[in-house]
# Entry
Amino acid sequence: MFRNPRRAALLLAAGAAAAGAGGLLDCRDSATAVSVSVSTPLRHFLSAASTGLLSRNPLLAPWQEDLTLTVSKFVYAGGFPILNSFASASDAPINASNQGSGGISDDSRCGRGCLGRDSIANAAAAVGPAVVNISCMHEIHGWALEKSIGSGTIIDPDGTILTCAHVVADFQSTKAVLRGKVSVTLQDGREFEGHVINADRHSDIAVVKIKSKTPLPAARLGSSCNIRPGEHVVALGCPLSLQNTVTSGIVSCVDRKSSDLGLGGIRREYLQTDCAINRGNSGGPLVNLDGEIIGVNVMKVWDADGLSFAVPIDSIVKIVEHFKRNGRVVRPWLGLKMLDLNPMVIAQLKERSSSFPDVRKGVLVPMVTPGCPAERAGFAPGDVVVEFDGKPVESIKDIIDIMGDKVGVPIEVLVKRANNVSVILTVIPEEADASR
# Structure
C-alpha cells in the first residue's frame, strides 16, 4: 500500500487536508495546491487516521521533521502544513484543550450576531427571567365565563410589561374593555396582580403594569429596522400556560403586509418567522441572538406550519410613545391607496405608458378615496409622490413616519404627473376612524 512513499504521503496529506476543510500545499512545490471539503465526522476520522499512520510508518519518517499539521484549528505534531481557508491569516492556532464537548468550539470568539453552539441558549437566558405568564378570568355577576392566557415581557424594572391587547382586553366598538383580573406570574414563581395601562386594537399591543417592592428583571429592546430574512431568532413564552418555553427559527419576511394576510383596516406590517407559536405565546418576545427584543409575537396561521407573525419592536416603541403622549395611538388618515415604486416597476409602467413621469423613486397613488382629505387636496389616480413635508420619500413607510401623529396640520406634498408635470398639493390629515 505504501510502496511509493511520496504518493502515500500525499494521499495521507490530502486526507489531513480534508479533515481541515482547507487547502493543501506540497512541501516540495509550493505552487501546487488542492482544496477539499468533507463532513465533520469524516474530518475528525481522517485527521486522526493520518496522524496515526504518519507516526507509525518508517517510510514516511523523513516527511515529519519540523512540520506541523493544523486541522480545523487543532494542532497535531508530525504532519503536513495545512492552510485553513476559513481562518484569518492573523488567527493563531488554538490548542484542542480549548474546545468544548464534542469537539465544537466555544462561543468566546463568536462575534455579534454569530450563531454558535450556545447562541440560542444565551439569548434565551438573557431574556427568560423577564418573560411572564399572563392570565385573565372574564367574569359576569361572579360567574367565570372564559380564561384568556398569554405571555408578556417586562421591559422596565418598575414593572412595565409588553403584551398583546387581545390577551387582556375585549374591544366593543372602539373602546377597550378589560377582560377581568389580570394575573402575572414570573419565571421565578412570583405572582402579581396586573393593571392594564393601555391597549391598542389595530396593532394588538397593550401595556400592563405590576408593582413590586424590589426591582424586577427587564429585557433589553433592540431594533427591527436592520433585520434581514434568514436571520436566526428565538421566541419565548408560555404556550398552553407552559412557562419557560423556548423555540427558535429564522426570519422569513421582514415586512409582511396585513393585506397579504387578508386583514382589513389600517395598514400594518409584521415580521414573519417559522418559530413554533401556539395559544398562550401571544404577547411573548421575539428575540435576536444578542438577547434583544425585536418583536412581540401576536398570531400564527393555524392550518399551516412555520407561519408566525410578530409586531416589529420599532413600531411598538412608537405605539408606547403615543400611549404616553396622547393616551391612545393617533393615526393620521389621507385616504390614499399607495404603492411603493422601484426601478423595475417604474420601467414596466413606462413601457405601458410613455407619459409616465421620469422618476427614479417615489410612491404611486393608484386610487383616491372619494371625500377623503387627499381628494379635497387635489390628489388624482396616477400621481407619484416624490416629496412629503419637504422630505424625499421612497416608500409608504417614509410617508407614515413623516406624518407621525400630525392630525389637522397642513402638509405640502410634491407629486409628479403624466408628462413630468410637477404639482405641489397641501393636504390636511384627519384622524383615522378606528372602525375603518
Notes: Confidence is low (pLDDT under 50) at residues 18-35, 53-105. Helices lie at 5-20, 40-56, 119-127, 165-168, 313-326, 343-352, 373-377, 396-403.
